[in-house]
Design a protein that fits this description.
Helix content: 40-55%
Shape: globular
Radius of gyration: 16 Å
CATH superfamily: NAD(P)-binding Rossmann-like Domain
CATH topology: Rossmann fold
CATH class: Alpha Beta
Number of strands: 5
Order of helices and strands: EHEHEHEHEH
Length: about 180
Amino acid sequence: MPKSILAITGPTSGIGMGTVKALIHDFDCVLLLCRNLEKGERLKQELSERYTELDIHLIECDLSDLSSVRAAAASIQENVTHIDCLINNAGIVSIYNRKSVDGYELMMATNYLGPFLLTHELLPLVMESDRKQIIMVSSGAYKFAPMKRPFFQPDRFNAITGYGRSKLGTLYLAQELHEKYSR
């Protein structure tokens, strides 16, 4: 019988760590997609000591860097045949107007563009599973997103609306996935 596989971004703290610990009994294999490998290694060690039968893999993935996302997806594609549950949890809030290495506003890159690309790249593996679960962690901050153009690169930076925009993007992605694949 094939292993049940969970892939999760942002598992080293907060909601991500809580999610891993709550769901760990439902999976045989966990793929920890981490920006900070040191924190990821500590989590992997902790989980390995506690759950000796669990197959745990640490994968470097900085969602703000699209080349890192592609490399993480390629590594996963080379090593697993399916993913039962993909949880896009990682995210940031920034009060400063910072750019990603690809030139996008950092919150939009990390909270939406990176997860969008990761989901797109891993979707064939999710579709190979009987479960076919993709979970997008968002927040009520989407209500702060103005519905005007340009959506991805606004003329002026505002931390509240920027964060809201990135979270609205995750909801749009979740809605699109639901409409296309939930049948």
